[in-house]
Amino acid sequence: MIEAGIDVTHLKRKGKSQYFRDGVTIDILDERKGYKKYKKTNHWIKVTEEPENEGPFDLVIVPTNWSQRESALKMIIPYCKNSFFFILTSNWAE
Predict the structure, then answer these.
(1) How far is CA 14 from CA 47, 50, 62, in A?
(2) Which of 2, 40, 60, 79 makes the best surface tag, with the fewest CB within 10 Å?
(3) What is the extent of the structural domain holding 40?
(4) 3-state SS class at 81
(5) Beta strand pairing status for 84-90 and 46-48?
(6) How many domains in the chain?
(7) Which of 10-14, 38-42, 90-94 has the lowest mean pLDDT?
């Protein structure tokens, strides 16, 4: 996203941002004609553990387990009062 000029910040749990300091490796399957079909590429991502130092946020995507949804939202909402939320959860019990 950085390469496209889009400002995206990934919020990680305390102690987890260290795993992303060298970016992330993405395995790409590209089926367009004239392009290499398989390639791995490294993407640099902006990561924070403290949302109060970032923002404002237009869109907040919250991918959590169903049981973590409430605690994640309680932590994030105070910093994202004017944001649109897209919540992705899984509920394997029902």
Answers:
(1) 11, 8, 16
(2) 40
(3) 1-47
(4) coil
(5) unpaired
(6) 2
(7) 90-94
Segment 18-33 mean pLDDT: 87
| 72 and 36 co-located in one domain | no
Q: Is the pTM of this model over 0.85?
A: no
Strand, helix or coil for residue 36: coil
With beta carbons less than 8 A apart as the criterion, state whether 67 and 94 touch. Answer: no
The verdict on 40 and 57 lying in the same domain is no
CA–CA gap between residue 27 and residue 89 (Å, rounded): 24
Q: Is 83 helix (H, G, I), strand (E, B) or coil?
A: coil
Helices (H), 7-55: none
- Cα distances (Å, whole numbers) of residue 59 to 10, 22, 80, 86: 12, 25, 9, 7
Q: Which two tokens stand for residue 12?
A: 């990680």
pLDDT (tens digit per residue) in 60-93: 888 888 888 888 888 888 888 888 999 888 766 6
